[in-house]
């Protein structure tokens, strides 16, 4: 006799007003009042990261119930992607509409952890909007993809404060998703999905038919 499946229970959760109320709806730029749009989101057990249209990253600490703000220097441009990582240190990678990518190494109150906010920049390889970011589990590798099909690998040395970046793959259509594990980068574009083996620098397509 087949077992009866348990009913699916739908739950409705309230908006996170304690987060939303800490983000301004408008900011003043000279004589102009600019509306702030929320453009990117990522969460983990420690933080809620929200990117905005004014280039400001809002980072809510779930343990301390505190909101902090981080921004890019220079031109204010929309943040298009954010990616959190909790390893030995807490890291957040941020991508923008013009192709800028930055990594923030967050301050921690725990003994032996990072005590000073540091920022690493992925210099000048992307020239268009960042559409995907993926971390290695240990925070030493960051992969970034853009809407022109470029994928950049950044090697981070957090102890030395060094970030070295290089173009590793270029696809003919926009990157829509990246995921990395065990020296294999999963790449999805508007046209296909592939596996990029980072050691051999070889590509294996998933499936045979292009996406329509």
UniProtKB/TrEMBL annotation:
Q: What is this protein called?
A: TCPR2 protein
One cellular component GO annotation, for this chain's record?
cytoplasm
Looking up InterPro entries in the UniProt record yields:
WD40/YVTN_repeat-like_dom_sf, WD40_repeat_dom_sf, WD40_rpt
Species annotation: Pygoscelis papua (Gentoo penguin)
> SMART domains of this UniProt entry?
WD40
Q: Which GO terms describe its biological process?
A: protein exit from endoplasmic reticulum
């Amino acid at each position: 006799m087949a077992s009866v499946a348990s009913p699916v229970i739908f739950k409705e959760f309230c908006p996170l007003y304690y987060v939303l109320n800490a983000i301004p709806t408008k900011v003043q730029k000279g004589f102009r009042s600019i509306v702030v749009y929320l453009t990117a989101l990522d969460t983990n057990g420690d933080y809620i990261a929200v990117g905005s249209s004014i280039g400001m990253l809002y980072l809510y600490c779930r343990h301390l119930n505190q909101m902090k703000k981080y921004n890019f220097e220079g031109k204010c441009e929309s943040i298009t992607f954010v990616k959190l990582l909790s390893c030995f240190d807490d890291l957040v990678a941020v991508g923008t509409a013009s192709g800028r990518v930055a990594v923030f190494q967050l301050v921690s109150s725990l003994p032996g952890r990072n005590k000073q906010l540091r920022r690493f920049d992925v210099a000048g390889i992307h020239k268009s909007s960042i559409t995907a970011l993926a971390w290695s589990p240990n925070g030493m590798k960051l992969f970034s993809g853009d809407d022109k099909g470029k994928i950049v690998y950044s090697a981070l040395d957090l102890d030395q404060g060094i970030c070295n970046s290089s173009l590793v793959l270029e696809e003919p259509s926009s990157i829509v998703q990246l995921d990395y594990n065990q020296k294999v980068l999963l790449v999805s574009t508007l046209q296909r999905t592939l596996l990029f083996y980072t050691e051999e620098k070889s590509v294996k397509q998933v499936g045979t038919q292009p996406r329509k």
